[in-house]
Design brief:
The protein is built from 5 helices and 14 strands. With 267 residues, the chain is an alpha+beta fold. The protein has 2 domains: 136 residues, no CATH class; 130 residues. Strands 6, 7, 8, 9, 10, 11, 12, 13 and 14 form a 9-stranded mixed beta sheet that branches. A 5-stranded antiparallel beta sheet has the order 1-2-3-4-5, with helices on both faces. A hairpin with a 7-residue loop joins strand 2 and strand 3.
């Protein structure tokens, strides 16, 4: 049985994602098609590291384009199975490209994806209904590049042999505990693209009694500040965060730290 406030929050996030990606629970007129068999498996395999947590196969909607030789695909939340997938609900879509017969993860996000920089043809963007950034709409920042942040500060940001965790512009949700028992939701941002960005939202945390999964949800106002923008594996990202939240929760902070090739938001 899902906790009602938490369920409503996850449902809101999922429906927001549907609006961003142009997805519906019924068939659409998009020319893209569902990936099947080996193609689906190959796409799922290469995009898996982009998600902050392991997502069951039934919770992913994997599509391939009918343009450009069917060499582009996406993986996003399967809203048809939202009832059994709420605990894995996430914002955004991961993009894969087949080159020389091999699928590769190229990037993703929930909005303002730099599709041009990723080499995604315009026809493919329309076919897959990608939430691409409008040409010339990049936020001001170092080198006039858009600035990104991460949707999960508890998970590894980058590990040897794995791509960087999917970067987002103005994430609406940030996971604070790896098991998802504490997250910031409904974030609204000001000054994004400047040296310091400010976010206001709701801290949604379990009280841990009798367990994090079954505990009562505690919701309080929260503020998060992102700072120290800099280039990280080819993209400009905010490299530090400071969370301020009301008791009984405690404030958090962290900055991108490299430990033998394993990057995390260490305090």
């Amino acid at each position: 049985m899902h906790d009602s406030p938490r369920w409503r929050g996850l449902l809101t996030r999922a429906l927001t994602l549907a609006g961003l990606l142009g997805l519906t629970l019924s068939a659409t007129a998009a020319a893209s098609q569902l990936a099947t068999d080996g193609t689906r498996t190959a796409i799922e395999r290469v995009v898996a590291p982009a998600f902050a947590f392991a997502v069951p196969e039934r919770c992913l909607l994997v599509r391939v384009t009918t343009d450009d030789g069917g060499n582009w695909g996406t993986a996003g939340l399967n809203l048809q199975n939202l009832g059994s997938c709420a605990r894995w609900a996430f914002n955004g879509v991961a993009i894969a490209h087949r080159v020389g017969g091999r699928w590769e993860y190229v990037g993703g996000g929930s909005a303002d994806i730099p599709c041009g920089g990723l080499g995604v043809p315009v026809a493919v963007r329309l076919d897959l209904r990608l939430p691409c950034a409008a040409t010339g709409s990049s936020q001001p920042g170092p080198g006039h590049q858009p600035i990104y942040f991460f949707s999960n500060v508890a998970a590894l940001i980058k590990a040897p042999g794995q791509p960087v965790q999917t970067e987002l512009i103005r994430p609406s949700t940030i996971v604070l505990f790896a098991d998802g028992s504490w997250a910031l939701q409904n974030l609204h941002w000001t000054d994004w693209g400047s040296k310091v960005a400010h976010g206001n939202g709701i801290s949604n945390a379990s009280n841990g009694n009798p367990s994090r999964a079954q505990g009562q949800r505690l919701k309080t106002p929260a503020q998060i500040t992102l700072s120290h923008p800099g280039v990280f594996f080819g993209r400009t990202v905010y490299r530090c965060y400071q969370l301020t939240v009301s008791p009984p929760a405690t404030d958090l902070h962290g900055c991108l730290t490299d430990t033998n090739g394993y990057w995390s938001m260490a305090p």
